[in-house]
Amino acid sequence: MSKPIVYAVGPDGFTDYEEEKIIAGNSYRWIVYWYESGCYDGTGMAFALREDGMVDAGMLGHCSCYGPLDDWPDNTQDMHETLREMIFDSERPGGEKRRMPEDYDYAMWQAIGVKIRELLDSKRRGTV
C-alpha cells in the first residue's frame, strides 16, 4: 500500500498527526481537502479516492473537544455522487439547490471540485 497524494486546497493544512490519522489503515489513491482552523475550532470537507473507486467523504468541522478527523469518514459514495455534491446542496431546507457564489461555503466547494476534476482529467489522459 503506497502513501496517497494529499492535496490541501484551503487556507490551512492538516498537522502531521491529522494527515497520518486520515491515511492510517486506508488504501487511498489521493485525498483532497479544504480546511480552515480557528482558535478552538475548524471547518472544512475532505474526499479520499479509495482503491476500489469509491470515495470516502467527511466534514472536518469541529470544536476544541474533538478534532477534524474524529468521525472520519462520515460516508462512502461513488464518484458521480461526489461530483454532484460539488454543484448541488441536498441538505438545504426545501430540497436540493444549486450552490451559488453567495453561499458561505461556495469557495470551499469550488476549490475541492476544481482539484477533483483536475485529478480525474489527469487520469483520463494517463498522467496520474
What does it look like?
By secondary structure, this protein is α+β, with helices and mostly antiparallel strands. The protein has one domain. Helices cover 29% and strands 27% of the residues. It is built from 3 helices and 7 strands; from the N terminus they run βαββββαββα. It has helices at residues 16-23, 79-87, 106-125, and strands at residues 5-8, 28-37, 42-50, 55-59, 75-77, 88-89, 97-98. The chain has a 5-stranded mixed beta sheet. Helix 2 packs antiparallel against helix 3 (106-125). The longest helix is centred in the last third of the chain and has 20 residues, at 106-125. It is globular, with a radius of gyration of 14 Å. The model has no long low-confidence stretch (mean pLDDT 87).
Low-confidence stretches: none
Order of helices and strands: EHEEEEHEEH
Distance between the termini: 17 Å
Question: How would you sum up the major sheet?
Answer: 5 strands, mixed
Tell me the strand percentage band: 25-35%
Number of helices: 3
Number of strands: 7
Name the shape in a single word.
Answer: globular
Mean pLDDT: 87
Radius of gyration: 14 Å
List the domain count as a whole number.
Answer: 1
Provide the spatial order of strands within the biggest beta sheet. Answer: 1-2-3-4-5
Instruction: Assign a percent range to the helix content.
Output: 25-40%
| Structural class computed from helices and strand pairing | alpha+beta
